[in-house]
Amino acid sequence: MRATGRALNGLPSNHIYDAVIVGGSVAGSAVAMALAKRGMDVLLCEPGLASHKLLAGELLQAPAAKALIDLGFMDAAWSAGAVASCGIVVVAPDLKAPVVLPYATVPGLHPSGVAIEHATLAAVMLARTSRRRGVTFVAARAQALQDLHGEQAASVELCDDAGSRRVQGRVIIAADGKQSRMRQAAGISIDKGPNVRMCGLKIAGTLPCEGFGHVFLGGRRPVLAYRISGDEIHVVFELAGDTGGVDPRDLDMLPLEVRRRVCDVIARGELSTAVINAMTPHARAKGRLALIGDAGGTVHPISASGVSFALTDALCLAGAMTAHYGDHQCALDVYAREREQPMRTRSVLGEALAETLAGESEAMHALREGLLHYWIDDPANRAASIGLLSTHDGRPAALAKEYGKVALKTIGQLRGRGASWSDTARVGLALGKKALAIARR
Ligand SMILES: Cc1cc2nc3c(=O)[nH]c(=O)nc-3n(C[C@H](O)[C@H](O)[C@H](O)COP(=O)(O)OP(=O)(O)OC[C@H]3O[C@@H](n4cnc5c(N)ncnc54)[C@H](O)[C@@H]3O)c2cc1C
Fold first, then answer.
1. What CATH number is given to the structural domain containing 319?
2. In terms of domains, do 186 and 40 share one?
3. Helix axes 328-358, 379-389, angle to 10 degrees
4. Is residue 110 part of a domain?
5. What are phi and psi of 231, to 5 degrees?
6. Could you give the angle at the alpha carbon of 386 between the alpha carbons of 385 and 391, nearest 5°?
7. Are residues 231 and 120 in the same domain?
8. Cβ distance 132 to 24 under 8 Å?
9. Cβ(308) to ligand 1 under 6 A?
10. Do 391 and 350 touch, CB atoms closer than 8 A?
11. Which is the closest atom of ligand 1 to the Cα of 55?
12. Which of 45, 331, 370, 372 has CB atoms 3.0–4.6 Å from 320's, for a disulfide?
């Protein structure tokens, strides 16, 4: 099913929409659907989804699955080949058995996530949204933002092959991805982290714990692998430096059959690559503009949290706009406030997790081991971790507490293994500083 759109020159003149939504991928379609379901009149513009986008959100954690159900997209996702994913499983050479972190153990969290090819999910969501009563869809690109603080509305300049047109919205929603043109036009600056190069490829076969997303540890960087359809598994590596390829140490961590298939695909050159960096805007809303999804911030992809966060943004913004209909300022303030702490938790977690799972310092080696033991020890620890990782628990204090507990476990482990007091003190000091930095952010 394809999205059905109106021509720009067929739009009514001088009409003010409740919202003009820029970008019709997962975040934009979700917010358009959520607002239309609440009786609002929205214009959604998307110049053309990237059908080749292999490297993007495909392992959707439980909050994303719940949002897809609530918004009425899930049946279409199943029909398009989505598969259920019950949590994350961590496989490491020192572990006797994989460590399973299931969603079902977290109070209040939907028991299952979902995995699906990203381009397929985005197409399914846009097609359904474009047909929804209350949504006007145009296959157009937004090129300028005006009247950000307008008394009645702000305007967006849209263009398609036939020309350009100005449309007005009480609220403008930037769902136009990490490079967001709307965010730039509003003068919202960003903090940007270092580049991370990723590569992904698809193989057939089976994974050790089918029904879960896999994280393979023990190489240079963690490797992610998850089933995205009945017959395809997606394997994602972080590449070495600015130019390097897949590190052989990462390949060594994969089960033999998976490794063999991955090597065949690499030899054929059938890989997709992407450069990603964590990015935090200095505001989530300004004037009549709200940022959602990647436009509102990105984190290290190891957390696989982008789509869950984008869909929760959409639901949160739609809820605030409904509760404060007619008062855009209040609605956007509420939205920005509600998403501030979860975004902070998500960025700090992404950074801390990437460092813990791949850091080469003595302290990070010890912390990695401590984390695995922390998980093995107690199902409640695993539940707390997957609650944070899935974005269900967005409290910075919960993250700081978990980090502190893992650091203490690590120190206990070192002592238990007979490490000297001086080695233990050195690692303890390094971890103490990290825990403090996390608590302060
Ligand atoms: C390598 C990699 C792996 C990832 N893995 C995961 C994962 O496993 N799980 C997960 O949950 N997340 C993952 N993510 C993150 C996830 O892909 C994103 O968070 C999610 O796709 C963001 O959706 P979005 O709708 O905000 O932005 P996008 O998907 O970037 O969509 C933005 C849309 O806006 C449109 N647009 C842009 N400019 C304009 C304009 N001027 N006018 C109109 N439209 C415009 C674009 O055409 C596009 O369709 C991963 C990301 C990467 C890069």
1. 3.50.50.60
2. yes
3. 130
4. no
5. -125, 10
6. 105
7. no
8. no
9. yes
10. no
11. 1
12. 331
Please tell me the distance between residue 388's alpha carbon and the centre of ligand 1 in angstroms: 21
Q: Establish whether residue 297 lines the binding site of ligand 1, counting it when its CB lies within 6 angstroms of any ligand atom.
A: no
What whole-number distance in Å separates Cα of residue 31 and Cα of residue 310?
A: 9
Write out the DSSP string of 230-292.
TTEEEEEEEPSTTT----HHHHHTS-HHHHHHHHHHHHHT--EEEEE--EEES-SEETTEEE-
For the CA of 310, the nearest atom of ligand 1: 26
- For ligand 1, is residue 30 a contact (CB within 6 Å)? no
302 with 247, same domain: the answer is: no
Q: The tokens of 296 are what?
A: 């509102």
Domain count, the chain: 3
244 and 392 fall within a common domain: no
Q: Is the CB of 120 under 6 A from ligand 1?
A: no
- C-beta of 313 in contact with ligand 1 (< 6 A): no
Q: Which atom of ligand 1 is nearest to the CA of 182?
A: 41
Are 70 and 149 in a shared domain? yes
DSSP strand E in 52-185: where? 59-60, 83-85, 87-91, 99-102, 113-115, 135-138, 141-146, 154-160, 163-174
Q: 200 and 178: one domain?
A: no
What pLDDT does residue 276 have? 87
* Residues 432, 284 share a domain: no
Whether ligand 1 lies within 6 angstroms of the CB of 115 is answered as: no
Segments forming the whole domain that contains residue 136: 8-81+116-192+279-342
> Which of 20, 25, 182, 238 to mutate to test ligand 1, by most ligand atoms within 8 A of the CB atom?
25
pLDDT in tens, the chain (441 residues): 677 788 898 899 889 999 999 999 999 999 999 999 999 999 999 998 876 656 787 899 999 999 999 999 999 999 999 999 999 999 998 888 999 999 999 999 999 999 999 999 999 999 999 999 999 999 999 999 999 999 999 999 999 988 999 999 999 999 999 999 999 999 999 999 988 899 999 999 999 999 999 999 999 999 999 999 889 999 999 998 777 888 999 999 999 999 999 999 999 988 888 888 899 999 999 999 999 999 999 998 888 899 999 999 999 999 999 999 999 999 999 999 999 999 999 999 999 999 999 888 999 999 999 999 999 999 999 999 999 999 999 999 999 999 999 999 999 999 888 888 898 998 888 898 888 888 888
Is residue 13 in a domain?
A: yes
Q: What is the CATH number of the domain that holds 265?
A: 3.30.70
55 Cβ below 6 A of ligand 1: yes
> What per-residue confidence (pLDDT) applies to 52?
61
Report how far residue 156's alpha carbon sits from residue 166's, in angstroms, rounded to the nearest whole number. Answer: 6
